[in-house]
Amino acid sequence: MPLIAIYAERVLTPLEEIRDAVIVLDGARIAAVGRRGEITPPRGATEFSAGTGTTVIPGFVDVHIHGAGGHDVMEGTDEAFDAVTATVARHGTTSIVATTVTASPDETCHSVSAIARTTKRGLTPSGSSAARAEILGVHFEGPFISAARRGVHPAEWIAAPSVALLERFLDAAGDAARILTLAPELPGALDLVGAARRSGLVAAIGHTDASYAEAEAAIAAGVRHAAHVFNAMRPFSHRETGVLGAVLTSREVTAELIADGVHVDDAAIRLLLAAKGIGRVVLVSDGTAATGMPDGRYRLGSFEVNVSGGVCRNAEGKLAGSTLTLDRAVRHAVNLGVSLSDAVRMATLNPATVLGLEARKGILAAGADADLVLLDEQLQVAGVMARGEGWPAS
Description:
Largest sheet: 8 strands, mixed
CATH superfamily of the largest domain: Metal-dependent hydrolases
Mean pLDDT: 96
Distance between the termini: 13 Å
CATH architecture of the largest domain: Alpha-Beta Barrel
Low-confidence stretches: none
Strand content: 25-35%
Shape: globular
Radius of gyration: 20 Å
Number of helices: 10
């Protein structure tokens, strides 16, 4: 791949804003980022201008996504993975953690094995030069969750915490296992947290009816993340604050946020940001197969959801994931008064840090992957590059 020098009016790394910037790419990696004049592109580099009024940011990292483009990651086929990764890339997401839904152990292992194979070998080129998101691994959402806070997860496949069952899932996932979401109040859950941590997973609280004390015990045991905060959790009360009290006040726990204007009220978003600080909030999509598609019926794991007005619900009328993309989430945060650099950080560097990939993903820096997004003045995605593929070469 050729050397490329991209000149931009503004770059958000996102920790630093660089005006009159140049980004030098060497194949799939960033070779240098800095002010024009301070960095001399290598001889023979192809030069591009990002255009007037645009901003270059890192590619978004989505650690909680079930599907997009009419397909669900649990289908476990190359067709499904291709549709999901191509669809979200058009909206600026260049890395995803494929997220399961509670299902039978056999179905979960089948899906996870397929995700793991794709994570290891990468997607076979489809003949298109367009960017596609990289699948970084697996996020297990269930089956070790609360029946009382299951949301739309099938009740028949909810399982009691079991180290043996987790080990079966991990055997299927190999080194692709990334995150395990569980309800910490269930008997045996803390043993599961320990097993997950020893296997290198991020242990997360989610779909939980935990009390404050139970959540605090889980954090002491090693929980460091919380799935789609406010959703599928015991509500906050001023006398028994529950799991939300622990999440909002813990400096150790990062908090996922579905900022689509549907899942969480704007006042609650402001409360979360005030309590956690920008550095501990992670924008996620919780996207389903309906993402990037018209209203209609789609699959989420093994069951069907209906999408009307862009909102996903199951047959009971419960929210069932979303059609959100992270570019929309960033714009929603900005509309609430969050600075663009902070909004970008919540969708890039923060999730990469949760995964321990902050040197390679979610940041524009020498040695990082060449995952770039070009935003226009309205913060719409005008170009995407994933590991050196796509804009501006396309």
